[in-house]
Design goal:
Elements: H1 9-33, H2 38-57, H3 86-95, E1 117-121, H4 129-132, E2 135-137, H5 144-154
Antiparallel strand pairs: 1-2
Helix pairs in contact: 1-2
């Protein structure tokens, strides 16, 4: 339904508010028409919508953390950089509470990804070197306020 390389903020908003929103409206119409199972479908779709909105907002722990970027260059909300890779950008979709399979978040299946830390050590000039003692930690979350404050300090905002 969605091509990963095209899933930017605008397309995620379109997915949530246009496609899913229209589908919810049709199911609500089915409820009023007395169609069996429509209430369960609306309930499940509204839960999915809430989870996708959490990803769109990007508050911790549903944010994208890129360990090789300094805090002022970390994306705010759903603003992925395709050059960071699918493993980094897919994480918010797995972080939200499960919709279907356990541990899969809003995805159909849970990919086999190690989130803890990568092999090797970072160099001392890496932006998160001092916080993680050189370990390549991927399991870190930043609040929107932290990112905005860092951008303000650096004059990026």
């Amino acid at each position: 339904m969605v091509n990963y390389h095209k899933l930017d903020r605008k397309n995620l908003e379109t997915l949530i508010y246009t496609y899913l929103g229209d589908w919810i409206s049709r199911q609500k119409q089915d409820i009023s028409d007395g169609v069996d199972g429509a209430e369960e479908k609306v309930s499940a779709a509204e839960h999915l919508k809430k989870r996708l909105e959490m990803i769109l907002e990007g508050e911790a722990p549903y944010d994208i953390f890129v360990r090789w970027k300094p805090i002022e260059k970390q994306p705010i909300g759903w603003d992925p950089d395709l050059n960071d890779g699918a493993r980094i950008n897919i994480r918010p979709f797995l972080s939200v509470p499960d919709v279907g399979k356990r541990g899969a978040g809003v995805l159909r299946d849970k990919p086999n990804i190690n989130w803890n830390k990568d092999r090797g050590k970072d160099v001392p000039s890496a932006p998160w070197y001092h916080l993680f003692n050189g370990d390549r930690i991927n399991d870190h979350h930043l609040t929107i306020e932290e990112k905005l404050a860092a951008r303000k300090r650096k004059g990026v905002l």
